[in-house]
Amino acid sequence: MMRWIVASSMHLRYLIVVIAAAVMAVGVAQLRTMPVDVLPEFAPPYVEIQAEALGLSAPEVENLVTLDVEELEAGVSWVKTIRSTSVPGMSSVVLIFEPGTDFMRARQLTAERLTQTFVLPNVFQSLGLLPPKSATSRVLLVGLSSKTLSPIEMGVLTQWTIRPALLAVPGVANISVWGQRDRQLQVLVDQARLRKYGVKIDSVVENTGNAMFVSLLSFLQASYPGTGGFFDTPQQRFEVRHVLPISTAAELAQVPVYEQKKDDGSPLLLGDLGRVVEGHQPLIGACSSSRSFPGATRWT
């Protein structure tokens, strides 16, 4: 076989030279338009959906969120496999598509099904698609620490300064932050004080949420802040703007509880029912950091 190939090549040497030159020309033409990557994209296209359901255990997340999302996305075209993970307060559903499926098409079809989430139980805060990433995953891990800033202040710096600056760099697709602590004003109620004044925990939640400019709790009036209105003069119209007087824990502690009085007739304040502090949201999972940066916030 090899002798025949060599003999044929020698006999048709001019034809072989022409074919080789044509292959080289095609290769040079394709070189200008071919995609360039350090590692080729070998993983099948997939889309990941995550939902936060703080306060729910893993079985509750599985029954109330994960199974419903799986059923909602089961009929998406070209889906090969659906995988899911349920942990306390978090649900993750991964849709793996057939090889060769257009990635943006897959995300579009998945997002269209998510428009029907209004029929699901209202037990999760947010549900959406995670930003896409390549098979090489994350390319850089950075630890952020400070001797002067608190973890909450570092979280604010990361969210509003560092992350937008890195996303503006060409080629950066996503920045994932671990260990970020969002600044919150929290009322840590004392059960003994609630019994003493005859106040229910629902009243504390309602007073605290409505004292804010906007509340994330959909059942509170503050979830729909509305507008301040306007008033007209003979020459112009003036708009009324909301100016929130509460920005610190001490100011929130002075908010009165609806129609509640102390024994001396003075208004019952939130600060009388417990401690009002500045804290952060419950953290899910764990984040390791370098020994040189204890308590660091990591982003990539």
UniProtKB/TrEMBL annotation:
Coiled-coil ranges from the UniProt annotation: none
GO cellular component, one term: plasma membrane
Superkingdom of this protein's organism: Bacteria
Example GO molecular function: xenobiotic transmembrane transporter activity
Name of the protein described by the UniProt record: Efflux RND transporter permease subunit
Organism: Candidatus Segetimicrobium genomatis
Taxon lineage: Bacteria, Bacillati, Candidatus Sysuimicrobiota, Candidatus Sysuimicrobiia, Candidatus Sysuimicrobiales
